[in-house]
Fold this protein.
Amino acid sequence: MADSLQTVMDYAVAVARKAGEVVQTALAGDRKVMTKSSAVDLVTQTDQKVEKLIIQSVKEKFPTHRFIGEESVAAGEACELTNEPTWIIDPIDGTTNFVHSFPFVAVSIGFSVNKQVEVGVVYSCLEDKMFTARRGRGAFCNGEPLQVSEQTDVHQSIIATEFGSNRDPEVVDKIFCSMKNVLKLPVHGVRSAGTAAINMCLVASGCVEAYYEIGMHVWDIAAGSLIVSEAGGLVLDVDGGQVDLMSRRVLAANNRSIAEKIVKEIVLFRPPRDDALDHKQ
Ligand SMILES: O=P(O)(O)OC[C@@]1(O)O[C@H](CO)[C@@H](O)[C@@H]1O
Ligand SMILES: [Mg+2]
Ligand SMILES: [Mg+2]
């Protein structure tokens, strides 16, 4: 598999770039907005078109590989991570940004074997930044090596998190309570890019010390998780334990010292797992 992983990586980069071109072109036109799990969980025809383009391209080259794609799952496909080679795809991470032309929009493609992410590609389309990682081979942005921040003092840190798309008052309260706790540590700042994939690339780039979220999905974080760990960071559950990509909980941090401080501030809850949730709306 070693050499074929490089073939997978090269192909994922090429497909992500092609997908990014479609996203950029679509930004110039009208975007018809539809909703999924809630009134603020948005999807457009471009999300669906880009996902089809990625899956069709990959199937031509790797006909036996499996897929977990955000929009295919929304249309009723199983969201099941097996040991088989699997492409984990978010065609547009940051659809709300895309709809509003808020300039952080990513194509995220992870590739897993034996349930472990081996290749991660996040293309931040509008910044034209191609983030890549292969397990054991480092993380890169446009070919330049990435390294997480060396900061060990949480008070000198920026922490990224997201508000998510669940507007259940109890969930919103928990999300805000965690943010308030983190802000009051104090930290230099709390930020939301509006895309989990780009938040993780910001950790990998050393711009923010940590990103945490409860409620995102496997396609939001599969690629980014490898990019963070290959840049020297840690990817954990929000309770500080081992991450489970299907559990919809993640904490990506530059080092253990920062991670431990953030873990203490997060109000924990468990959304339905990706492999247990009925995604079809
Ligand atoms: O729907 P999309 O645009 O692919 O995902 C975007 C997003 O809202 O999903 C997660 C919350 O569920 C967030 O991390 C991320 O910002
Ligand atoms: Mg997403
Ligand atoms: Mg998406």
Summary: The pocket of 1-O-phosphono-beta-D-fructofuranose (ligand 1) is lined by residues 70, 90, 92-95, 162, 164-165, 194-196, 213, 215-216, 220 (CB under 6 Å). The chain has two domains: 2-145, 154-263.
